[in-house]
Structure formats: C-alpha cells, structure tokens
C-alpha cells in the first residue's frame, strides 16, 4: 500500500467540500495512506491578473503549494460547482501554477488525480469541466468520480473504491 507523501486532498471550499475532504482523509488513513488536506481557503492568494503578475512576482503561497504538489504521488480534488463550472478559487490556483515556472506542465503531466464534489446543485457540470481541464493539462483523471449533494449523501464505499483505484495508479513518466 501507499507510503511517504502519498496523497494530497485539495479542498476548494471551507464548507461541504472540506467536510468531504476530511472523509477522504479519514478513509485514506484507515488504508495507510500518508495524506494531508490542502484547504485553498486558508491561503491569501491574489486574483491572477496577467497585466499585473509576471513570473518574477509569484506569491510565496503558490511556490509552497507547487512544491507540495510536486512531492505528492496522488491528488484528490474536492470542489463545489460554481455557476455550472469550476470554483474561482481553484481556477485561480491553476492559473497561478501555470505561470509559476517553466516546469508547470510537469506538475500536471501524467499526474494521477481523482475528482469529487458536494454541490448544492447537480455537480455534474463541475466534474465534467474539471475533468476536461485536467486531461488537457495531461493528468490521468480517475474514471470513477464522486458526486454528492443534499439529496445524494456521500457514500463511504465510493470513497474507499476511489482510494483503492487511485492507489493502483502511478505517475506517468513523460
């Protein structure tokens, strides 16, 4: 099973998706993953603006997040659906990462990632949009995903299955 820094669970909200992230972490601990939650709402990162921000002035938080992501074998992203798509805090992180150095593509290229949501609405648009973006960046997005809402509670068996499948994936060397 997993070891070292195996799993990072990225939470793109401080509400239900943070709770979902904690459920993933609890189950990952049972399965002997060395995991941590990266709560994007705890970082004070400005909105990326290409007119203002250049490669020379990357926020320290982005550099730290990037180093952490490079050092982690597998990722899970838990995010709510915003206006039928990806939440701004997650889009902003990806935008910052994309200008944070010449190795941006290596960060995502071949990276095993699972995606999950707890959304007030359907949530399917988020999962579809996020999958399209991550695949475009070269990531290996797990086929199984978790979609939950107030009318569709989180299924712990789905969390366990996602973790088991993710544990079998390796970062592709490209």
TrEMBL record:
Location of the NADPH-dependent FMN reductase-like domain: 8-148
Regions annotated as coiled coil: none
Single GO term (MF): FMN binding
Superkingdom to which the source organism belongs: Bacteria
Record InterPro entries: Flavoprotein-like_sf, FMN_Rdtase-like_dom, NAD(P)H-dep_reductase
Cellular component GO terms, alphabetical: cytosol
Designated name of the protein: Possible reductase
